[in-house]
Specification:
By secondary structure, the protein is of the alpha+beta class. Helices cover 36% and strands 18% of the residues. The chain contains 5 helices and 7 strands; from the N terminus they run βββαββββαααα. The chain has a 3-stranded mixed β-sheet. β1 (13-14) and β2 form a beta hairpin. α1 crosses α2.
Length: 151
Amino acid sequence: MATKLPCRRNAIWNPNKGPEFLRKNYLATEDTAQEIFDVLNKNIWNSELERTNIEIGRIRGSYGWCLGLNTPAGEFYTKKIKLTPKWGCLQWFITILAHEMVHHWQCSIYSNERYESGMPWSKSFIMSHGPSFHRWKASLAKYDIPLKLQH
């Protein structure tokens, strides 16, 4: 069963506290991360992203990261996304996962498209916070998921 994305439109509203899902601590698991990945992939990327390994574990200095590599044949791909296990709320976890999924798209799809269009292989790889990153801002905003550089 797919997990419904929490947003202000479908949150349980508490007049004293605001949306309930924003107030509860969240402990991430790899299973729920994969399930949320699938929901985001279907609704935002039209199932364009290949499932990648999502690892939950301690990280120093960040909430998550995305590791992009290339095959011996020269294709770019995402090896894994790593996320910290403890979150202030589910919405925060989804926001960071979506951020890393944008990097996954940059690496595994956009970088390969750039190479196929004639850009030299050495300059094709991209995993940055530039224009290709921000092009997903409006799509994510439809689900009340902010796309930021720092959280």
